[in-house]
């Protein structure tokens, strides 16, 4: 019997900081055992360079990622939807698992302010993986 790979969608407003860092950790730590998507309700032009720098310090390269627009299809195709400050802009479908992570927005912040956000995201991703990959 084959077990279907869980799918996680990480959403923040601009898909440039929090959700991209979370997706980077998830891809890195899950090592192909989870399908990872990220999107934003109002995507930015590019990923926050300070978020890229913070992740580089962890040995994770997210420079190739691009902010993507949140679609109904992405939500429908995901088992778990994790929002980070997008509020009512995130579509809701019964039967999906939703979590809302209250995280500071790294936009406009320096590396000293972004590191604690990054570290909190890492802890939440590790806890999520421990729960999903039993």
TrEMBL record:
Top-rank taxon: Bacteria
SUPFAM superfamilies registered for this protein in UniProt: Phosphotyrosine protein phosphatases I
Any one biological process term the GO annotation gives: response to arsenic-containing substance
Gene3D superfamilies documented for this protein: 3.40.50.2300
Sequence ranges assigned to domain Phosphotyrosine protein phosphatase I in this UniProt record: 6-131
Keywords, comma-separated and alphabetical: Arsenical resistance
PANTHER family (alphabetical): ARSENATE REDUCTASE
UniProt protein name: Protein-tyrosine-phosphatase
